[in-house]
Amino acid sequence: MAKKQFKAESKRLLEMMINSIYSQKEIFLRELISNASDAIDKIYYKALTDDTLRFDKDHYFIKIEVDKENRLLTIKDTGIGMSKEDLETNLGTIAKSGSLAFKKENEAKDGHDIIGQFGVGFYSAFMVADVVTVYSKALGSEEGYKWESKGADGYSIVPFDKEEVGTEIVLKIKENNEDETFDEYLEEYRLKGIIKKYSDFIRYPIKMQVSDRKLKEGSDNEFEEVIEEQTINSMVPIWRKNKSELSSEDYENFYNEKHFGFDKPIKHIHISVDGAIRYNAILYIPEKMPFDYYTKEFEKGLELYSNGVLIMEKCSDLLPDHFSFVKGMVDSEDLSLNISREILQHDKQLKLIAKNINKKIKSELLSLLKDDREKYEEFYKSFGRQLKYGVYSDFGSNKETLQDLLLFYSSKEKKLVSLDEYVSRMPEDQKYIYYASGESYERIERLPQTELVSDKGYEILYFIDEIDEFAIRMLMNYKEKDFKSVSSGDLGIDADDNKEQSEEINNENKDLLEYMKKVLSSKVKDVRVSKRLKSHPVCLTTEGEISIEMEKILKAMPNNNDNVKADKVLEINPNHEVFQSIKKAFETDKAKVDLFTSLLYNQALLIEGLPLEDPVEFTNDICKVMV
Ligand code: ADP
Ligand code: MG
């Protein structure tokens, strides 16, 4: 028996591939099972067009056999088989993919797809085996053949008596060495696990002898070990089923089976697309946030299948960051099985799928918001912050997608409202969408700065998440209405007489205000008479880009410098008694003005939740007033 050499380039490739392509050796089984399934597909496909062939479903299966003693693992199929020539061309030459050729031949006739287009799958057997023996008999041929190889040094082909059409691949599993154990590939539970993981949705039964503990017949407490043949894979993937056949319970079971989460998903999305690109997907909006969600450890991604075979457990390219909470899977016939991460990133089809999915998630969330507010708010409690991060990040490039999904607490409604709801009930004379930031709804409610806007009857959105104000700055406007902080310098409320009046008072008290500004020196940019205060004596407002809330957040960040400061303005209520006493003091007792100014400023800091620069001085100042 003459030993044949692999073609030179094949030999090198074979050596390289064995060591590099797949980091997880366990996928050899996935490759061989996929080939077996392809081979059965081929016979099935032939039967569709050839009247002399009958496709009897029961006759088609894949069988896994283990012979521990001799370290043999066998993968048997009842597929189309290989002739001598097939064995030569398909297994003798790397990168010559029989499946690809078959696919090309049959391209015109749609409806059947065969996994694997790169033709390196079979050789993965050498990752775990010293010797690979293939017994095969092709459909329509009289003779069977035995192909055998020990790896890179070549292969042999001899005739072999084989009764049934199909292929049997026998792997002589490697001995354990210092670095690796191979025994596991002879263990029933391990093989079962690999099959479940990668090949659960192969369309044909994958059978295996498994031992099971069963109740002894006639006994209700005695067990016995029985060995029986079981079908390991569940065969029909839920995503290939018709939506009308499935209940929400089915979807929930799948969610649990897949360990997507411990919660009950708020919503499932079943997508079947049959267009330029074909794919099925089942996506879930979880109810509860995973415990590590807002940490670095959290990894987003969807399971990716190529025609029922798992090729990646967390494909991150399928999900944008702003929807990173979505769980689920995608299966496409148009993706190759032997695809690497690097190739995947540039895969046009994958990009298309990702784009579709992004759109679909958005529209489903919108309809949830419309049709089931309670559920949406439940979802928003867990993941609203992520949506807001999404608005802010990537320079706001996703704000169009996300703005309608945002909710904020409303001063008027006392509950979460959408921007659309806010804008649609704005009175005609209201120019801006108003918001106020603070630590809690209760604290914002009591902020003096909200007084004028509230008195005007305008709604205010309360921001209590750190990200809120940053996101809104990125958004800039919604339906052509700009956002405005109630603490910003100009509120855009034309109480014109009000305005003139306050300017008048400002002028009248110019000297006093200048003096107070000097007392506070670098702490504030200006001291002004307020038009927004009604009952409170003072408040702080800001000018420019950075608000007080933003200053707090930026300061709290590690490695942040103290240079980031809001340009603060101290506003005083001219109608408050305190202002009258300051005015009086200005004429008679400058030391008292100093004291009052510093007290007022510190009060304003406290109201804002800002730290006092010198608490001891502040308490001393209060004592001075008391004695
Ligand atoms: P691919 O599956 O991507 O084509 P493989 O290296 O996995 O590449 O397989 C090479 C070829 O060998 C297949 O295309 C197929 O023609 C043939 N082949 C492999 N395993 C079988 C099998 N069990 N039955 C029939 N043909 C097979
Ligand atoms: Mg293959």
Task: Walk me through what this model shows.
Keywords: ATP-binding, Chaperone, Cytoplasm, Nucleotide-binding, Stress response. Homodimer. It is a single chain. This protein has 4 domains: 8-231, Heat Shock Protein 90 (2-Layer Sandwich), CATH 3.30.565.10; 238-375, Ribosomal Protein S5, domain 2; 406-493, Rossmann fold, CATH 3.40.50.11260; 494-627, Four Helix Bundle (Hemerythrin (Met), subunit A) (Up-down Bundle), CATH 1.20.120. The longest helix is centred in the middle third of the chain and has 24 residues, at 348-371. The chain is elongated and about 120 Å long. It is α+β, with helices and mostly antiparallel strands and 627 residues long. α8 (348-371) packs across α9 and α18 (577-588) packs antiparallel against α19. Magnesium ion binds at residues 31, 34-35, 116, 121.
